Amino acid sequence: MLKDLPHYECLLECAKHFPDLDPAASGLFMNMLRTADELFAIKSDFLQRHNTSNGRFTVLMLLSAAGPAEGECAPPRSPAALAEMAGVTRATMTGLIDTLERDGFVRREADPHDRRAMLVHLTTQGEAFTRELLPGYFRQVTAIMAPLQRSEQEELMRLLMKVRRGIATASQVEAAETSSV
């Protein structure tokens, strides 16, 4: 991502050559991309200091997301369900589960209701690692969002949901343009 984002005047000049360029929208878009890159980098650095990856962290979070009571195991999930929830391919999820299993954080067991299927369980070691990792992770997330008042956080969430709807619309427009070519 660009270190120094173009100034509004530069975007205005570009708009003379590209009529579809909205300078305000483009400037906002580039700032959002830069912010997303910085957020991803700080998360990646945190996870790297704890010898894990974003993908592995995601799987551990998905397996512990149900918030079991103390002493209870988190409910298992199928690899396909985990892949769907994480937004990755089944092959990617298989690789993540393989490394987490190798490291003792998860285990696979046959689904008692479907012998053809497997379920992934968080192990005691995986639960302990997650419990150890999360306080620091949540402190960092809280520090990042601290400059925003609660009402601003809620407004930002509402606006980001609108942007996500715009992403879906843009994907449909691109698909329609591609199919008509």
Structural description of this entry:
It holds the Pfam family MarR. This is MarR family transcriptional regulator. It comes from Synoicihabitans lomoniglobus. Keywords: DNA-binding, Transcription, Transcription regulation. GO terms for molecular function: DNA binding; DNA-binding transcription factor activity. The protein has 181 residues and is mostly helical. The chain folds into three domains: 1-49; 53-147, Orthogonal Bundle (Arc Repressor Mutant, subunit A), CATH 1.10.10.10; 148-181. It is built from seven helices and two strands, in the order αααααββαα. It has a two-stranded antiparallel sheet. A hairpin with a 2-residue loop joins strand 1 and strand 2. Helix 1 packs across helix 2 (23-49) and helix 4 crosses helix 5 (90-102).
CATH domain class of the largest domain: Mainly Alpha
Uncertain segments are: none
How many domains would you count in the coordinates?
3
Q: How many individual helices?
A: 7
Main β-sheet description: 2 strands, antiparallel
CATH superfamily of the largest domain: Winged helix-like DNA-binding domain superfamily/Winged helix DNA-binding domain
What value does the Rg take, in angstroms?
21 Å
CATH topology of the largest domain: Arc Repressor Mutant, subunit A
Strand order of the largest sheet: 1-2
Give me the secondary-structure category.
Answer: mainly alpha
Order of helices and strands: HHHHHEEHH
- DSSP strand tally: 2
Give the end-to-end Cα distance, rounded to a whole number of Å: 31 Å
What general form does the structure show?
A: globular
Instruction: Give the helix proportion (percent range).
Output: 55-70%
Strand content: 5-15%
Average per-residue pLDDT, rounded, comes to 87
- Supply the CATH architecture of the largest domain: Orthogonal Bundle
